[in-house]
C-alpha cells in the first residue's frame, strides 16, 4: 500500500514536471525540441494505470494537452526555419550589440516605408462644428455655482437618536415580552381576545406599531391566532410559555390589514 | 459615362478612402474598398499605384495570413488591409522632421529585429535588456511603450512582445534582417 502511494506521488511529480517544461517552452520562447515527445508520452502511458480519482485523471489530461501545445510549437519552429526569415537569434543580437545606434538607424531606414495618413477637416464638418459652437451654452451658465451646506459635527444624545428612530427605547426582545405580559393580562385565564382589542390604540401610529409587535408575538410562539371565518373575527390567544415550533404543523402566513379606515371603524365601534 | 471619366472618378474615391484616416488605423479593408469602388477595386488600386510611383508612394497590401499568398483570391483581398506607404526610404534628416530621434529609430530597429529573429515573439524583459545596451535605462520603457502605442509591437498579459499591424504595413522584415546580418 505504502509502495503504491509512493509510486503515485512520484508519478504526480513527474506529470507536474512535464507540464512545467511544456509551459516554459512557450512562455520563455525556448527551443521546443528540448522536449523529447516520445519519452514523455511513454512516461504518461506507464503512469496512466495508476490514476484512479478525478484530480489525477485531470492532471494526466492536462499533461497530454500541454504536450500537444509543445508539438504545435515544434511544427511552427520547423516552418519558421524553412522560411527565408530564419536567422539565428543569438547571431542577430550579437550583430546588434556591435553596431552603433547611428548604424542601426541607417539600416532600419532602408527597410522602413512609413504609412501616409491624413487627418483633415472637411467644409461640411466645419459647418457642423460652427453650428455646435454657436448653440453651445457658455461655461458660466452650464457650471452654475452651487453652495454646499456645512454641518457642524458633534456628539448626538440618546434622546436625539430616539427622536430620529435610530435606536429603540427598549431592546426588541424585552419590548416583545412586555407586549406578551400585557396580552396575558388582557386575556384572563389564557382565553383569547379579539385581535383588534389588543392592537387598537388611541393613535393610528401606535396601532400600527402594536400590530407589528403582535406579528412577532405570533411568529416567535408567544401567542397564536384564531380566525372565526363565519364572523370574520380574528382572535389572539397568549401561550403560557413561548412555543418556538408548532410541532409538525406547517406554518402559514395570515395577512391582516390594519388600514386607517379599519382603525377608524374600530374606534367608532368602541365609542358606540 | 466615358471609360476615362469613370476611372478618374474611381481613382479620386480610392485616394480619399486610403489617404484619409477613417478609423483608428489608417488605410482601408478590402471589403470597404469593394463597397466604395466596386468589385473591380484591385484594378483601380493597381492604377492608383502606378500614379503614386511618380510621388515615391505605393499601395501596400497586408494580408491576414503571415505569409502573403502568391495569387490572392477575392476573399483574401477582401480580408486584407490596404495602406498608402512611402515607396522609397527616408533619410535620417527627414526622420528628425517627423519627430523621431535617432535613439527611437535604433530602439525600434533592435526591438523588431529581436522579435523577428525569435520567431515573432520575445519576452519584454529580454528586449529591455538588449535595449539597455544602447539606450539609457529610463528610455527603454518609455520607448517600448511608444512602439506599442504606435502599433509597431503589441504586448500580451504574460509580458510577451509581438509584431503588430504597423510593422507588417511599413517594415520589410527580410531586408532589415539581411542588412543587419550583412554588417
Name a few traits of the molecule.
heterodimer; A: 272 residues; mainly alpha; Arc Repressor Mutant, subunit A; 3-stranded antiparallel beta sheet; flat; B: 183 residues; alpha+beta; Aspartate Aminotransferase, domain 1; 57% helix; elongated
How is the topology of this model organized?
The complex is a heterodimer of chains A (272) and B (183).
Chain A: H1 2-27, H2 37-47, H3 54-82, H4 89-98, H5 101-111, H6 123-135, H7 139-142, H8 158-163, H9 172-186, E1 193-194, H10 195-199, H11 204-219, E2 223-228, E3 233-238, H12 260-271
Antiparallel strand pairs in A: 1-3, 2-3
Helix pairs in contact in A: 1-2, 1-3, 2-3, 9-11
Chain B: H1 3-19, E1 28-29, H2 30-37, H3 41-53, E2 57-62, H4 74-79, E3 81-86, H5 92-97, H6 102-117, E4 121-123, H7 124-132, H8 137-150, E5 153-155, E6 160-163, H9 165-170, H10 173-182
Antiparallel strand pairs in B: 1-3, 2-3, 4-6, 5-6
Helix pairs in contact in B: 1-3, 6-8
Summarize the structure.
With 272 residues, chain A is mainly alpha-helical.
* CATH architecture label name of one domain in chain A: Orthogonal Bundle
The percent of residues in helical segments of chain A reads 55-70%
Number of helices of chain A: 12
- The overall average pLDDT of chain B, rounded, is 89
Proper CATH architecture of the largest domain in chain B: Orthogonal Bundle
Biggest sheet record of chain B: 3 strands, antiparallel
Tell how many strands the DSSP assignment of chain B holds: 6
SSE string of chain A, helices as H and strands as E: HHHHHHHHHEHHEEH
CATH homology superfamily of the largest domain in chain B: Winged helix-like DNA-binding domain superfamily/Winged helix DNA-binding domain
Silhouette of chain A: flat
Please give the order of strands in the largest beta sheet of chain A: 1-3-2
Whole-number mean pLDDT of chain A: 83
How far is it from the N-terminal to the C-terminal residue of chain A, by CA? 91 Å
Report the biggest beta sheet of chain A as strand number plus sense, adding barrel if it closes: 3 strands, antiparallel
Chain oligomer state: heterodimer
Number of helices of chain B: 10
- Structural class assignment of chain B: alpha+beta
CATH superfamily of one domain in chain A: Structural maintenance of chromosome 1. Chain E
So what's the overall shape of chain B? elongated
Amino acid at each position: 500500500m505504502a509502495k503504491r502511494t509512493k509510486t503515485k506521488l512520484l508519478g504526480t511529480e513527474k506529470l507536474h514536471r512535464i507540464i512545467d517544461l511544456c509551459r516554459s517552452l512557450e512562455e520563455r520562447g525556448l527551443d521546443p525540441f528540448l522536449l523529447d515527445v516520445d519519452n514523455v508520452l511513454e512516461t504518461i502511458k506507464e503512469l496512466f494505470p495508476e490514476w484512479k480519482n478525478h484530480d489525477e485523471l485531470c492532471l494526466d489530461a492536462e499533461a497530454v494537452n500541454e504536450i500537444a501545445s509543445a508539438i504545435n510549437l515544434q511544427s511552427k519552429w520547423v516552418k519558421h526555419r524553412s522560411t527565408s526569415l530564419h536567422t539565428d537569434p543569438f547571431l542577430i543580437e550579437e550583430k546588434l550589440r556591435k553596431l552603433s545606434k547611428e548604424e542601426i538607424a541607417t539600416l532600419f531606414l532602408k527597410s522602413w516605408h512609413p504609412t501616409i495618413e491624413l487627418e483633415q477637416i472637411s467644409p461640411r464638418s466645419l459647418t457642423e462644428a460652427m453650428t455646435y459652437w454657436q448653440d453651445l451654452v457658455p461655461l458660466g451658465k452650464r457650471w452654475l455655482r452651487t453652495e454646499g451646506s456645512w454641518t457642524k459635527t458633534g456628539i448626538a444624545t440618546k434622546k436625539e437618536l430616539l427622536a430620529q428612530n435610530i435606536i429603540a427605547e427598549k431592546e426588541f426582545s424585552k419590548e416583545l415580552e412586555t407586549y406578551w405580559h400585557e396580552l396575558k393580562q388582557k386575556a384572563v385565564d389564557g382565553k383569547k381576545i379579539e385581535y383588534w382589542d389588543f392592537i387598537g390604540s388611541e393613535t393610528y401610529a401606535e396601532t400600527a406599531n402594536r400590530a407589528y409587535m403582535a406579528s412577532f408575538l405570533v411568529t416567535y410562539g408567544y401567542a397564536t391566532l384564531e380566525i372565526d371565518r363565519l364572523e370574520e373575527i380574528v382572535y389572539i390567544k397568549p401561550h403560557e410559555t413561548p412555543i418556538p415550533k408548532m410541532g409538525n404543523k406547517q406554518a402559514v402566513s395570515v395577512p391582516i390589514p390594519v388600514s386607517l379606515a379599519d382603525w377608524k371603524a374600530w374606534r367608532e365601534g368602541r365609542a358606540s | 459615362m466615358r471609360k476615362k471619366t469613370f476611372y478618374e472618378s474611381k481613382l479620386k474615391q480610392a485616394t480619399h478612402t486610403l489617404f484619409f484616416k477613417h478609423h483608428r488605423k489608417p488605410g482601408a479593408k478590402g471589403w470597404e474598398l469593394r463597397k466604395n469602388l466596386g468589385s473591380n477595386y484591385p484594378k483601380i488600386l493597381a492604377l492608383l499605384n502606378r500614379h503614386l510611383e511618380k510621388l515615391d508612394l505605393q499601395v501596400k497590401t497586408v494580408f491576414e495570413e503571415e505569409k502573403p499568398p502568391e495569387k490572392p483570391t477575392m476573399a483574401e483581398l477582401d480580408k486584407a488591409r490596404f495602406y498608402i506607404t512611402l515607396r522609397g526610404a527616408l533619410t535620417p534628416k527627414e526622420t528628425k522632421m517627423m519627430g523621431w530621434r535617432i535613439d527611437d529609430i535604433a530602439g525600434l530597429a533592435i526591438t523588431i529585429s529581436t522579435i523577428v529573429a525569435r520567431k515573432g515573439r520575445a519576452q519584454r524583459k529580454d528586449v529591455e535588456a538588449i535595449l539597455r545596451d544602447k539606450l539609457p535605462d529610463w528610455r527603454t520603457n518609455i520607448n517600448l511603450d511608444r512602439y506599442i502605442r504606435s502599433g509597431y509591437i503589441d504586448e500580451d498579459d504574460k509580458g510577451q512582445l509581438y509584431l503588430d499591424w504597423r510593422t507588417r504595413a511599413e517594415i520589410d522584415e527580410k531586408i532589415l534582417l539581411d542588412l543587419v546580418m550583412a554588417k
